[in-house]
Design brief:
The protein is built from 6 helices and 5 strands; from the N terminus they run αβαββαββααα. By secondary structure, it is an alpha+beta fold. It has 2 domains: 85 residues, Alpha-Beta Plaits; 57 residues, no CATH class. A 3-stranded antiparallel β-sheet has the order 2-3-5. Strands 1-4 form a two-stranded antiparallel ribbon. The relative contact order is 0.13. The protein binds iron/sulfur cluster (SF4) (2 copies). The site of one iron/sulfur cluster has 13 residues, from α3.
């Protein structure tokens, strides 16, 4: 084809791009931007781990965890939604406004840790369904311990081990007749 014909055709067709900040409607198969429900989140970091484009970052702190999402990096693949064990991550139809600066749409959600029922210090969030899926039918004692902060859980476990070993030693002694 003659180059002049190509140029004339392009000029006649007009611009094929949209001037910023305008935008085309998303494709029908577009999954949507990612949102997260802090009330459901376990701060496990799986969404961060599976996000290959590093659009999600989960940063644990002492009393809460920061969950960050940058739509500018997101490929809308849906892996975070598929892998979140408590369905805290969802994708909705809106993709946000146009932006000119990298990171301009980055959003942060704070996930507060619940208080330890024994000492009141922050304890990691936990979910009954995930506990069951991971460990099956656990005892009421362990179920109670999962609510505790790391320190109280360590103390409770140590005390339970000591009590069990003490009882076993007593039984052993009486069996031996000593
Ligand atoms: S949809 Fe894909 S790219 Fe976007 S945040 Fe989730 S895992 Fe990352
Ligand atoms: S959103 Fe889901 S996968 Fe991500 S940290 Fe929270 S519970 Fe884990």
């Amino acid at each position: 084809m003659n180059i002049l014909n190509i140029i004339t055709g392009n000029v006649a067709r007009g611009p094929q791009t949209v001037r910023f900040p305008g935008r085309e409607a998303p494709a029908a198969a577009y999954r949507g931007s990612v949102t997260m429900d802090a009330a459901k989140c376990l701060a496990c970091g799986i969404c961060d781990y599976v996000c290959v484009s590093r659009a999600i970052a989960v940063t644990p702190g002492a009393a809460s965890c920061e969950w960050t999402y940058d739509p500018g990096r997101c490929t809308y693949c849906g892996r975070c939604v598929d892998h979140c064990p408590v369905a805290a991550v969802t994708q909705a139809g809106d993709r946000g406004d146009s932006y000119a600066r990298s990171g301009a749409q980055r959003a942060t959600v704070t996930v507060p840790y619940p208080a330890c029922p024994q000492c009141g210090r922050p304890a990691m969030p936990y979910n009954e369904a995930v506990l069951g899926a991971a460990f099956g039918d656990v005892s009421a004692e362990l179920r109670e311990r999962i609510h505790l902060c790391e320190r109280c859980r360590r103390r409770a476990t140590t005390a339970a081990l000591k009590a069990n070993f003490g009882a076993a030693a007593e039984t052993g002694r009486s069996d031996d007749g000593r």
